[in-house]
Amino acid sequence: MKRALIQRFFIILAITIGVFGVISYIVASRQMLKTTIGNMRQLVREIDYAIDYSGDAEQQILDMKQKIDRTTDQNSSKVRITILKNDGSVLADTDATDVSALENHGGREEIRQAFLNGFGYSTRYSSTLGERMLYVAELSEDGAHVIRVSILFSGMTDYLKVLFPSLALAAIFLFILAMLVSVRFSDTVTKPLREIAEEMVHIQGDDPEFHFKTYRYEELNIISYTTDQLIIEIKGNIDRLEFERRVRQEFFSNASHELKTPITSVKGYAEILQNHLAKDPAAEEDCIRRIITEADHMTSLINDILMISKLETKDLSVDISEVRMAPLLSEVVESLQPIMKQQNVTVHMDCQPIVLQESANQMEELLTNLLTNAIKYNHPDGEVWVSISRENDIMVLTVRDNGIGIPEDDQERVFERFYRVDKGRDKKVGGTGLGLSIVKHIVGYRDGTITLKSKPGEGSLFTIRIPMEKDGQE
Predict the structure, then answer these.
(1) Lowest mean pLDDT among 34-48, 163-177, 218-232, 314-328
(2) What is the distance between the alpha carbons of residues 295 and 263, in angstroms, rounded to a whole number?
(3) Rounded to 5 degrees, what angle do the CA atoms 285, 290, 296 make?
(4) Among 271, 299, 409, 435, who pairs with 369 as Cys (CB 3.0-4.6 Å)?
(5) Pairing mode, if any, of strands 90-93 and 119-126?
(6) Dihedral sign of CA atoms 49, 51, 52, 54 in order
(7) Pairing of strands 471-473, 90-93
C-alpha cells in the first residue's frame, strides 16, 4: 500500500508539473509575442515619423537601420525594414538591392491587415533565411504607405535552451521533496493501519483486549472504533451462544431426567402386573392407576416441552379470536376448584371488562399456570388474588398470594425450565417444572414483560404487562 501511495503521488506530481509547464509556456509565449509586437509597432511609428516619402526612401531606411544597429543588440542581418505603396508594391527594402525585382506584397497577411485595419502582424517561416520571422506592418500617417518591420522570432524556444538546466534542477529538487513528503504522508496512513492489524491479531485469544490509539485522520479512528465495537458484539454473541448452549444442554438433561422417572415407574408397575405379583384386585387396580397417572404426567411434560420449543422458534400455530378476559378467568378458576379444595386455598378475582383479539388457548394456559403455582405453593387456608386491568394500551395481569414465597437467590431462576425451588415439595404437589417457563415464553411471544416480587413466608406477586394491539371493552 505504501509503494502504491508513493507511485500515485509521483504520477500526480509529474502530471501537475507537465500541465503547469505547458500552460506556463503558452502564457509566456503569448506575453512575449505581445511585448515584441508592441516594441516593433513603436519602432514603426518612429520610422514613419522620421522618413520623408518624397525623398530617397531606400537610403533613409538604410541609415535608420544603421542607427538601430548602433543602439540595440539586434542582429542587423536579421532585421528588415520595408516601405510599401498603397498598391502593395515595394518602395524600399533594406534587404533588397533592386526593389523593382521584388514581387507585389499586397497579398501578405500583415500587409492586408494593415490596409484594412491600420495594423497587422504575422509569423511565418522564411525560406530565404531559413528562420521563423515575425512581421509587423502599420499604415503610415499619410495613409499612402505601409511600413513593415520583420525580425527573427523563435518565441520561447531559444530561452528554453538557457532555462532548461535550471528547470531540470528545480524538477529534481521537487521530486526529492515530493518523495520525502509522500513517504512521510504514507507513513501516517500505513503505520496506523499496521498497528490496527497488529491489535486485531489478539482476537485469536480466549479473552481478547484491544488498545487502539487516537490517530490524526478521523477515518482511521472510525476503523479502530468500529473494530472495537464489532469485537464487543462478537464477544457478546459468543457469550450468548455459550449461555444458550448450556441452557439447552441443561434442558435436555433435565428433560431426560424428568421422563426417566415416570418411565421407570411405569415399567416397574407393568412388570408387577406382568409377573402377577399383585396379591389382590385392589393392588392391581392401584398399579393400573399409577401407570395412568405417570402416563398423564409424561404427556403433560412432552406437551409443555413442545409448546416451549414452538414459542422459542416462533413456529406456533395461533388461532386468533375475540377473547373476553373476565369469562375466561372465571372458567380457569372453576377448572382449578379440585386443587383449591385439596390445598384449601381461596381465589379472589377482580377483572375489568377487557376484550382481546388473541389466542384463547394461550391466554388460558397463561392464567392456568400462574394460578396453579399460586395455589400449590401456598399455606392451608391461604388466599390468592388475581386482577386484570388496563393501563392505556397495556393489559396488566397480577397474581398475588400469601403462600410460602420464593427466596431472593431463586427469584431470577424460577422462569428457567425444570427449575424447582423446593424439589421435595414439588414431588408432592406434582407438575412438570415448566409452568413459569411457559408463562415467560407466552409473554415474550407478545413482546410483553413479567416481573416478580416475593418474600419467603409472606407470598409472591407476579405482574404481567402485554401490549393490546386490537382490543376493546365489553
Answers:
(1) 218-232
(2) 8
(3) 125
(4) 435
(5) unpaired
(6) negative
(7) unpaired
